[in-house]
Design goal:
This protein is an alpha+beta fold and 178 residues long. The chain is built from five helices and three strands, in the order ααααββαβ. This is Flp pilus assembly protein TadG.
């Protein structure tokens, strides 16, 4: 009776059919996670580059005095040149702070971003207009939802209660004399 079971069992163990099923089943989730993280990283990079570029363009106009100086006008300039940022006017928050080089005090380390909670309004922390020869720091914070919130990269990003994460760009400039 044992010989009756031994021969088919030996033949079964010697067969190599389906030997790739186990490695494919083990490696497929790893490669899918890598693909998802690559897409997420590419999206973050493109959005951050667009925000940096559009902030630099808006600050150039602001520095030279050829553009408007209100928060809404600067946001409109940034959002019009950064078309890749979805819902930019609602998700972008600007703060502008005067920096005194003679009496230095550090600007706030943490950027203030828009509050994405329903019916909550984030007050404007600082938006000071400087005069000629004054150094100004402007910081833009854009909130977005990651493409893969539970993925390797999206899951490690700091998020608020609604699942939004922030891209922050900062620049400094000196007002040109008029």
């Amino acid at each position: 009776m044992i010989g009756f079971l031994k021969n088919p069992l030996r033949r079964f163990l010697e067969r190599e059919d389906g030997s790739m099923v186990v490695p494919v089943a083990l490696w497929t989730p790893v490669f899918l996670a890598l693909i998802g993280s690559s897409i997420e990283l590419g999206t973050v990079t493109v959005r951050h580059t667009a925000l940096e570029r559009s902030l630099d363009q808006a600050v150039r106009d602001l520095r030279l005095g050829t553009g408007g100086t209100s928060n809404d006008i600067i946001k409109e300039k940034i959002c019009s040149s950064a078309n890749i940022l979805p819902d930019c006017m609602d998700k972008l928050h600007l703060e502008m702070v005067r920096l005194d080089l003679r009496d230095w005090s550090d600007p706030p380390a943490k950027a203030q971003c828009t509050d994405t909670a329903p019916e909550a309004i984030t007050p404007l922390r600082n938006f000071e207009h400087g005069g000629a020869h004054e150094m100004m720091m402007i910081r833009a914070c854009f909130k977005y939802q990651p493409i893969t919130p539970a993925g390797m990269l999206g899951g490690s990003m700091k998020k608020d209660a609604q699942g939004y994460t922030a891209i922050i760009s900062t620049t400094a400039f000196v007002h040109e004399p008029t």
